């Protein structure tokens, strides 16, 4: 899939190294080259400041923090970045809450190439 608008650089914020690596591999298979990852929001701040991402995959359940609180911070400080929330809990309430907080989309874990591609295609349509 070739995207019309650049979605890179892409940042993955997830405390699970396996989830970060797996999603990174999927994105690389889809043709993305500028993909970085961070285990928590504190370590992501440096990446945000030095190379602000156009797209952020953000885990809702990070240790010692709340993903929706981070989403609000990102929307305030990086309004041009598109945030896709990620969680292993696909409840309607969880999805609605992320949209109400300003996420562009939601993707359920575990990741797979079809889910990621579908979400990116939807994002491309609204940007």
Automatic annotation (TrEMBL):
GO biological process: one example: phosphorelay signal transduction system
UniProt keyword list: Phosphoprotein
Modified residues (4-aspartylphosphate): 59
Pfam family, any one: Response_reg
Listed InterPro entries: Bact_response_regulator (IPR050595), CheY-like_superfamily (IPR011006), Sig_transdc_resp-reg_receiver (IPR001789)
Ranges where the Response regulatory domain occurs: 9-124
PANTHER family: PROTEIN-GLUTAMATE METHYLESTERASE_PROTEIN-GLUTAMINE GLUTAMINASE 1 (PTHR44591:SF24), STRESS RESPONSE REGULATOR PROTEIN 1 (PTHR44591)
Protein's name in the database: Chemotaxis protein CheY
Native source organism of the sequence: Pseudoalteromonas phenolica
């Amino acid at each position: 899939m070739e995207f019309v608008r650049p979605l890179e650089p892409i940042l993955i914020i997830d405390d699970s190294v396996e989830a970060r690596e797996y999603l990174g591999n999927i994105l690389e298979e889809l043709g993305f080259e500028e993909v970085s990852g961070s285990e928590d929001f504190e370590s992501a701040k440096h990446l945000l400041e030095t190379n602000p991402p156009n797209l952020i995959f953000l885990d809702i359940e990070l240790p010692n923090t709340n993903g929706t609180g981070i989403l609000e911070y990102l929307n305030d400080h990086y309004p041009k970045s598109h945030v896709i929330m990620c969680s292993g809990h696909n409840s309607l309430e969880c999805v609605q809450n992320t949209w109400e907080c300003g996420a562009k989309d939601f993707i359920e874990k575990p990741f797979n190439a079809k889910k990621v591609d579908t979400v990116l295609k939807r994002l491309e349509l609204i940007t």
